[in-house]
Amino acid sequence: MPFSSLGLSDSLLKSLAEQNYAKPYPIQQEAIPVILKGNDMLGIAKTGSGKTASFVLPILERLRESKPSKSRHVKALVLVPTRELAIQVEEVFSLFSSSLPKTVKTLAVYGGVSINPQMMQLQGVEILVATTGRLLDLIDSNAVNLSAVEILVLDEADKMLNLGFKEEMAKIFALLPAKRQNILFSATLSSDINSITDILLSNPTIIEIKEETTSLDLIKQSAYLVSEERKGPFLRYLIIKQQMDPVLVFVSSTNRAEAVVHKLLKNGIKAASMHSQKSQGARTDVLKQFKDGTLRVLVATDLASRGIDIQFLPYVINYELPRSPKDYIHRIGRTGRAESPGEAISIINPEEMHHFKIIQKKMGKWLTLIHTDDINLTGF
What we know:
Blueprint: H1 10-18, H2 26-36, E1 41-44, H3 51-63, E2 76-79, H4 83-97, E3 106-109, H5 115-121, E4 127-130, H6 132-140, E5 151-154, H7 157-162, H8 166-174, E6 181-186, H9 191-200, E7 205-208, E8 219-225, H10 231-241, E9 247-250, H11 254-266, E10 271-274, H12 280-292, E11 297-300, H13 302-305, E12 315-318, H14 325-332, E13 342-348, H15 353-363, E14 369-371
Parallel strand pairs: 1-6, 1-7, 2-4, 2-5, 3-4, 5-6, 8-13, 8-14, 9-11, 9-12, 10-11, 12-13
């Protein structure tokens, strides 16, 4: 089924063609017509399934010929759990709105940066992408008004609930008009999601894109047994010998991230870190460099990884194992996305072997451990 059969205008179809979107993914195919009709919707789909475009496109379609907003009265509100996701969603809106007949102003607001520039930029905004805390700050400052919101989107609602935003969301819901369209996206269908659904949604269309059992098969997994003192040289050996570019490297702590980056740079490999102790501006800049191909290696902690969503990422390396099997799946799932193959490599020291066996058991996939004692790492 082509995008042209989903009810989108020629201007948006032009944007899709310019961005080389050949055909809709399953969530887009099912969600776009529902949202265009103005129906409430609950979408269950994993991260990386194409869900952002599935609400961005119909919202732009709905607003492309609408009258300008009253001062600081937004028409569409998208709530997200993290700053990185807010930036990412805004980028998708900007990407597809470039060929519209009129400008549909979109803004992302989030904490970790000064609130004053965001307050100034809110004039004339029709689509607001926001984290809950910063949105409430802006409301308290009378910088934005939610009384004219026509469309509410909760993106990654399960993560928002897991991160403890339920109370903040309730405050925001109370400020919204009763008559509006509500759209929820979640990777899971939990009791918390059901409770939110009962409060927000009226006769919703429920769309569930089941995770294919073969999804991990798109990812070529391998594991190397490496002594702790040889881990750094072996990482550099892999990146250089396999000509990896770009590659996302996961570590367990901020200090380890900085240490790994220091050694990579010292050996002529362009790298940067991404972790919670970096300022929001620095994290945004590093992620932009990684996405546009000017940064070869991004070294990240699990906390920072939640905002990393890159459609075509060929390599992920676990320099250190995560605490839980669930986080392992999340990490390697940064590659092999949207039907594109990828490679996930784990560098295991002997002390991590027991934990790695637990991860494999939970994953239901056993890997042959490759020994590395005979690999000459001199010069790496």
